[in-house]
Amino acid sequence: MDSTPRAASRVVVPQRHAFAGPLPLQSGARLVDYELAVETYGTLNADRSNAVLICHALNASHHVAGIHLLDDGREEAGWWDNMVGPGKPVDTDRFFVIGVNNPGSCFGSTGPASIQATTGRPYGAAFPVVTVEDWVDAQARLADALGIARFAAVMGGSLGGMQALAWSTRYPERVAHCISIASTSKLSAQNIAFNDVARQAILTDPDFHGGDFYAHGVVPRNGLRVARMIGHITYLSDDDMAEKFGRAMKVDDLAFGYGAEFEIESYLRYQGDKFSDYFDANSYLLITKALDYFDPAAAHGGSLTQALAGARASFLIVSFSTDWRFAPARSREVVKALLDNRHPVTYAEIDAPHGHDAFLLDDARYHRLVAAYFDRIHAGLAS
Amino acid sequence: MSAPATALRPELAAIAAWIAPGSSVLDLGCGDGSLLAWLQREKGCRCVGVEIDDAKVLACARQGVEVIQQNLEDGLALFSDASFDTVLQLETLQMVVHTEGILRELGRVGRESIVSFPNFAHWTHRLAILRGRMPVSKSLPYEWYDTPNLRFATFADFMQLARKSGFTLRDRFALRGGQVVRVLPNLFGNVAVFRLAGQAPGAEPVVSG
User: Fold this and answer.
1) How far is A355 from chain B (nearest CA, A)?
2) A323 is catalytic
């Protein structure tokens, strides 16, 4: 497991782990012969107790920290590089940190764009719907392969925070600390509504071809673009948008047309275009469905307290005051269920202006708190 | 990170003596978590703090104290009935708007509550009023125009409110310079301390040391 940075460079080389045994999925389907793209940072200690699993959200990947090379040779920093690395809150000088691309995604692990061995063609619409719990099972198999019986921490933001939460009950003996940031135990009707608008944009794009657009040599670019635009709106706060864009115009005079005249239009279109260049439309559908389906309380008569009863971890829950996608009230529901179970929990509500995206940004209060929590985890390893 | 092995301040030691080893403690307005860190370490208590201030929440995390960041004015909806053996509200009651509301919440969540606040009837305060000025003292260190304190009450006032809110008085004393005062506490104590049995439905009496 050696994808540690090359000497004198922070470039991290991803590994690929192949799994021959089929992965049973919640839907009843199975994922056969799949691969996971993985990056690791730091060194696993002698008693294998310092491993930290980082779970990614909708459009992220195993490229958590350090620098990775893009296909065109350009260098790009990991999506949580401000959080994970040497001397950072999740300090890779002390912890062995694992980033893994979830199956169904499109950054190297087996997903809809991968070639299906039985047909020799991309899975496309044939790729099974995967759930948060399925991802957690896949991650647990990866942990087995890496020889990690128990994680010092499983951590994630947003959809990643759902995976951390699922770990705490699905594999209670394998998680010492669960860190769930800007997350929720279930999507609201409003959240699902936004997701479905995004999916409809993709599904109704003539270039979607029922999910088998690969064979047609096209990409449902317009659908992906609109999906990303609507998603992006939910990641920012109203105040943040007002501050960044307001009613600022790109043009001096009104064109009385439908081009990008306001800065916000230009920004969202740019984000949409960029996204449609690299993200797979089927992955977007799958992953938003995984978000919609997640609801651990459902199997317990709606009681989140009962759903979390079996957890054995200590918890750090963090929310951001202006996050209206997964608002602080959603985190407080999780905190209440943990308190009802007498599980150790620390809860911080960070007063930050940046909405849902705040979990990815460099905020001193937020990072100091996570650093303090990881100091505590580290102190626990030594004893 | 374990807390430094410091001794408790004398006024906290008197309060800590009421808390049974191994019991559960919720500290409202827990500050940097020093008392809870001590109770965890020395008495093996299961401790949770509530604090609004970012720096203090961080200090709690650094001491290894579980802390919930919230405004006490929002009530204690996160905490179930009789879910803690003891709820502490130490020298913060005078800073909340809904005094009676939060007091009822203490009684709901805790089997027992310990409340302290600056005693406005301390003789030095009485003297200041006689002189026609609002008191500024060790327990009330703020000028009237620049104080986080919203409520001013006396030892005697609080007894009345506690009874009205359905609490049973278990014990009380006043503190003067960190020392326990049991003689004429309303006159000689600058901090009033009350130990109250909660009015929570189904609350059972706790055994305490």
Assistant:
1) 18
2) yes
